[in-house]
Amino acid sequence: MSGSRIAVLGTGIMGAPMARNLCRAGHEVRVWNRTHSRAEPLAADGATVTGSPAEAVEGADVVLTMLHDAAATLAAMRAATPGLAEGMLWAQSSTVGTAGLDDLVVLAAEEGLTLVDAPVLGTKQPAEAGQLTVLAAGPRPARDPLAPVFSAIGSRTLWVGEEVGAASRLKLVCNSWVLAVTHGTAEALALAKGLGVDPQGFLDAVEGGALDLPYLRVKAAAIRSGELAPSFAVDTAEKDARLILAAAESAGVRLDLAEAGADRFHRASRQGHGGEDMAASYFASWD
Predict the structure, then answer these.
(1) At what angle do helices 15-24 and 143-153 cross, to 10 degrees?
(2) CA gyration radius, the chain
């Protein structure tokens, strides 16, 4: 389905580059964002900037949602109702958790939409490069129509089944690891500072070994340079951490590190770092 008509609801850190890459791939893209000014630059890339979710989705083949959480996604899709048509494909890429997804499933059934659970792995830079990993779950007939959409925003699509929710559960597992590595990097560098150790010595000690990894390098560089423009903001990371904890609790799993990490993000946000990259977890090491 090259040249699909795609509505993108949510043009923040992730949604904007996803919409831009869809335009570059030759799709007809209509975008909406709650803060209109954040969507306006996409007009230069060929997207049609709309004033409402209903206007964005009217006549679309695919609706792609990339909003902050389940509540924002539900509100946008309810507002889109006048423009929705039975049989539309809805690729839901926001990180909404397990409980939040339930409400979206109900809405999709009410409106006759084909819902595909499609969260993505990656942050701002991979999104800009079209190198996200799409985790997808939904009806098999939706796979071919969505293939050119997912290939425009990502380098890989991993279909994990037909059950809506399977991809969102996997996303929470993946994010639990991402957040753990982020906090581990932040705490190691904070300890180095406290002990008067050159952080480069730590990085040199693990270089090339089993304890080294690219994400450590990326987050350590952000902390050391103070360049904390968000690729994944502290407040968003805390939101995801709370979703992980809620899902774990419902499954009878205790996650002590995730709980401490959520509190750590909360402290960093309270210190004024909520809009900065989640590497700002580093600052939560001091009151």
Answers:
(1) 110
(2) 20
pLDDT at 235 over 70: yes
Is the Cβ–Cβ distance between 53 and 77 less than 8 Å?
yes
Grouping H, G, I as helix, E, B as strand and the rest as coil, residue 8 is strand
What is the C-alpha to C-alpha distance for residues 176 and 174, in angstroms, rounded to an integer?
5
Determine the Cα angle at 151 with ends 149 and 157, to 5°: 105
Query: Has this prediction a pTM greater than 0.90?
Result: yes
Residues written for the chain: 287
- The answer to whether 48 and 30 are in contact (CB under 8 A) is yes
Q: Is 147 left (phi over 0), alpha (psi -120 to 50) or beta?
A: alpha
Q: Is the pLDDT of residue 2 over 70?
A: no
SS3 (DSSP) at 286: coil
Cα 97 versus chain centre, distance: 11
Order the strands of the 48-49 sheet from edge to edge. Answer: 48-49, 28-32, 5-9, 62-65, 89-92, 114-117
Distance separating alpha carbons of residues 37 and 40, to the nearest angstrom: 5
Q: For residue 136, what is the enclosing H or E element?
A: strand 132-136
Render 258-280 in DSSP notation, one character per residue.
Answer: HHHHHHHHHHHIIIIITTSBGGG
CA-to-CA distance for 25 and 152, rounded, in angstroms? 6
Q: Given the structure tokens 């993108």, which residue do they identify? A: 8
